[in-house]
Amino acid sequence: xxxxxxxxxxxxxxxxxxxxxxxxxxxxxxxxxxxxxxxxxxxxxxxxxxxxxxxxxxxxxxxxxxxxxxxxxxxxxxxxxxxxxxxxxxxxxxxxxxxxxxxxxxxxxxxxxxxxxxxxxxxxxxxxxxxxxxxxxxxxxxxxxxxxxxxxxxxxxxxxxxxxxxxxxxxxxxxxxxxxxxxxxxxxxxxxxxxxxxxxxxxxxxxxxxxxxxxxxxxxxxxxxxxxxxxxxxxxxxxxxxxxxxxxxxxxxxxxxxxxxxxxxxxxxxxxxxxxxxxxxxxxxxxxxxxxxxxxxxxxxxxxxxxxxxxxx
Amino acid sequence: xxxxxxxxxxxxxxxxxxxxxxxxxxxxxxxxxxxxxxxxxxxxxxxxxxxxxxxxxxxxxxxxxxxxxxxxxxxxxxxxxxxxxxxxxxxxxxxxxxxxxxxxxxxxxxxxxxxxxxxxxxxxxxxxxxxxxxxxxxxxxxxxxxxxxxxxxxxxxxxxxxxxxxxxxxxxxxxxxxxxxxxxxxxxxxxxxxxxxxxxxxxxxxxxxxxxxxxxxxxxxxxxxxxxxxxxxxxxxxxxxxxxxxxxxxxxxxxxxxxxxxxxxxxxxx
Lengths: 313, 270
Known about the structure:
Largest sheet of chain A: 6 strands, mixed
Oligomer: heterodimer
Largest interface: A-B, 32 and 27 residues
Number of helices of chain B: 10
Strand content of chain A: 25-35%
Number of domains of chain A: 2
């Protein structure tokens, strides 16, 4: 059954406005099946709206999309579509006084699962929650709730998974655990869309990356996206004293696309680092900046993302 | 099409929740106790009321009203008064769902918001209408179950007492059957729908209960104050009341339907 439907997301000029104000506009992209897309963007960029549109939870005001072979907007607005999608909402959203098992049983019935017990047992064991199944969800840690929410998103064996901020607010250990689960899900061949602010997480998980700021600023394979903006690197210059007073001087240097100060560190986004960094260091030193250390932060997704966002500003 | 399984899932879920909700439970206990107490007092102390009627203008008026009822014409004063007084208790059985349904539905809808369970529910394949009907029924069902169960116990209690004391069975009469059986659920339904509508803009269940009570209970009391006497003395008037309540429910349901669209809930509800 799973193989017979194209596991792919395709959006064409997908748009949505609220009271005449556009939340997302003209999103056009195609995500191959079995991929993991990291949807990145600042707060209010339209990530959650995009996911809700793709899930058929809200209607587009323009354009259309196809998800797992179902068209959005559909005549019955997504009842069948939601049956093949899993959604991890930003807040876990459980009945706190009820046990984990009770919560899952209720949602299993809404998904129309007639015999969910074996599946729930298997999933609760797999996610390490079997021993806690009868405890009220209110007594769970954030990490446990998030794992429980993942079970809920998965127990109907969805082809497409939408994960909205899956590690937000989790301690590092829990976040790592959730990331490992997501990676495992990716190996099962599901198509996954992760909305996140955590660029490190996106870098670890994603094959594809989409940068959203109302419009889709970039949509590419992660490696290609980084390569496309690969001449931009983030450089950290540590100074003996507050870095803020040297920020403008650094920004004026050729090849520097952005500068920010964090305590005694200057963070620069530079183009062509090999030729730019020596020039920046020389300029700052000649202006009297007490440089202690120069470090190449990364030629990472972070630098590419920041460059992309700044270009759009 | 509304799937029975979905509605049953909501119902089973909500009933469990209700049992452990310490803020809703008292309302579901106080009203039934009063609803049993009133008819029991009437049949236990009916003789004393008749005996004191001569000195009490209110009681005299009630006695006259009782006697004017063609159905009570052949009965002795004591029985006629008891039957008439028991009919007035129907009014309390109409107030019961009004008060209880508002509380249950405020906690049911706003509770989902507080626990942030709405979006996960709406992400399942259920339809908007299933969600609305499911919520409507789960808010109404406990209220009706309690109202009807209390009415059955009250009828058994009254009949046991009157069988022993008067060798007569007084309840249920057709006013009780139509009032408690039909008008009570329709009024309860209207209150649920009004509260559901109010819940869409609220994040505090207690505030919703108060807003609902302010919107509904005074209206109910005024209507019952004006038409109450007519409703318990003319069966045609009672049937007309039932028809009006049914039309009100249909109108309210259509109004609330739009509020309960997935899109509306996700984008407009606070």
